[in-house]
Amino acid sequence: MTMRKASLIQGNRACTEGALAAGVRFYAGYPITPSTEIAEIMSEELPKLGGKFVQMEDEIAGMACILGAALTGKKVLTASSGPGISLKQEAIGYAAMAEIPCVIVNVQRLGPSTGGPTSSAQGDIMQARWGTHGDHPIIALCPSSVYECFTLTVTAVNFAEKFRTPVYVLLDEIVGHMRENVELPTYEEIKIIDRKKPTCAPKEYKPYKIDESMIPAMADFGTGYKWHVTGLFHDETGFPTGKTDVIDSQLNRLMTKFSKYEDEILLWEENQLEDAEILLVAYGSTARSALDAIETLRNEGIKVGLFRPITIWPFPEKVLRGKLEKLKHIIVPEMNYGQLMLEVERVCKDKVSVSGLFKVNGLPITPDEIIAKVREVL
Amino acid sequence: MAVSIKNLPDQELFYGHKACQGCGGAIVARLALKVLGERTCIVLPASCISSVTTIYPQMSFLVNSLTSSFPATGAVLSGMAAACKAQGLKDVTVLGFAGDGGTIDIGLQALSGAVERGDDFIYICYDNEAYMNTGVQRSGLTPYGAWTTTTPTNNNAVGEKKFKKNLFEIMMAHRIPYCATASVAYPNDLLNKLAKAKEIQGPKVLHVQAPCPTGWGHGPEKTVEIGKLAVRTGLWYLAEYENGQVTINTNPKEFKPVKDYFSKQKRFRHLTEEDFRIIEEHRDTEWKILRNYLGKDE
């Protein structure tokens, strides 16, 4: 594909462009505000690329359907919001357990329950980490611009494929519906990662046999490699087991399978952090208000900086801990009652005091509100 | 005395809503409450009707109403009906009022369970043939050929490719005490089915076609005309199932050409002669199945 012209598009569309560029050719889902545009655009665009769009009968089905498709070798994605993401949780846990690559876009709206369908929120941060039951690995990426909706969806698909895991792309409604003039990268510029396939003969294939990569090779259903997939604890053959030592080692590997790839998985952005005394830890649309606030405060000589976690889960804790030397205080502005602040506190509170700026009424946190909070802690 | 437009109570239990002009769903709600009365408790899932009636402080329902989570209508009805029974409340009508997607897709499991349990409630599915509340996405009750935002009509896709699920027959298969199809274009028929449902113990399901000017692409003054055409072309039928027997309320000897119905709605404007042939063939099969039920014990 040749160079694209700059175009004025919304975050949800950029997300679909990213998915298509990364090789997603299967979408199943259910309409729900404020993520519906993603389904609508996929229903238009996927058939043109030989892909498949399926509108399912409910949210649970939307999630389960992409898992079935992923096992046949497709790169898959679904999108939803609040109540829909809650309904998908069992199948997301299944994907983590059976190590099925898939991407879930959550355009966050105000919760709990039906909440505010057209109102923005960042209230699903902890749900993304612990929404499904049991200990499990998860990756969640959080864009704060339309351009990043594109690039991070590409990254999410790549991570899902490489690490055989469900990956969330956590938009908030503001980012999803915001329109920006962006020039998206050409397809040639995009790095694509495909899942590792087995090289052995079908008869020798053990679907969960682990090598030093920690990520087992995945055969496509229907290609002669016969294997069993289950949400039960299983051994390297894929069949269920009740042996406690196997359960122990399987869960241990699942929980640590990203560890050796942290350099690749952990993404963040820093702004004027070098001499900062006050640090804002902000993400998604809130990070944009934080940047604006920093500009105003810096003009007044107040040393404020930004740490924006792009990978929310796993949280880039070692990186953040390395930035604490000169800091006097950390403020976490977020559109929930302190979900990521809990994590920042856990990482930082023995060295720096942490406070939150919370707003949960559907309205964005403004630069003025952040400025006022900074003045309060000075 | 049969219920009719002429002897309906003047009391309005549903007014001041924010629905689009010509909304078929709003007509169903208004007529239903005129028959069912002020001791009605309504359960609504996420739907057009819940969105346009519950904008505080201008509540459109003058009866108790509950907006449930999307998949839960049938289950919440069960809870209400069982609790009414436990308390000995006899003059309360427990009413579910859900759209097509909320009924036939995400709500079907809960509805099936509630009907199986035999709880005493009325369930109305007002069918505007797509998820209109979120902006016209297809549902399991979207008819063959219709454009929606998730069944686009570009070069690679020509609208919905599947026929409507048959809720009437799904309910018959539950051996439900009473189920019926109806239309906003035939109010007397609808009113009498509601009155009958009110008297019968156990679960009752009404599937009511409710044209949607916004999603179907016709003028708001055409709602009744379109509803009538659906019946006269045989694309929608009016029938009842009671005591194991099927009754057909309008059984036309011949149908008007389906084109008369399609040509008045933007959602069908891309259809070809081949599509009309496929649709007529399907219609004839459906009628054959329906007429086969006549006079037979289920």
Uncertain runs of chain B are: none
Structural class of chain A: alpha/beta
The CATH superfamily of chain B turns out to be: Thiamin diphosphate (ThDP)-binding fold, Pyr/PP domains
Count interface residues per chain for the largest interface.
A-B, 20 and 22 residues
What level of helicity do the residues of chain B show? 25-40%
Task: State Rg of chain A.
Answer: 21 Å
Estimate percent helicity of chain A. Answer: 25-40%
Ends apart, CA distance between termini of chain A: 52 Å
Q: Structural class of the secondary elements of chain B?
A: alpha/beta
The low-confidence runs of chain A, each spanning 5 or more residues with pLDDT under 50, are none
CATH class term of the largest domain in chain A: Alpha Beta
Describe the strand arrangement of the main beta sheet of chain B, using strand numbers: 4-1-5-6-8-7-9-10
Order of helices and strands of chain A: EHEHEHEHHEEHEHEHEHHEEHEEHEHEH
List the domain count of chain A as a whole number. 2
Fold-level CATH name of chain B = Rossmann fold
The succession of helices and strands of chain B, N to C, reads HEHEEEHEHHEHEHEHHEEHH
Rounded to the nearest angstrom, the radius of gyration of chain B is 18 Å
Q: Mean of the pLDDT scores of chain B?
A: 95
CATH superfamily of the largest domain in chain A: Thiamin diphosphate (ThDP)-binding fold, Pyr/PP domains
Terminal residue distance of chain B: 29 Å
Strand content of chain A: 15-25%
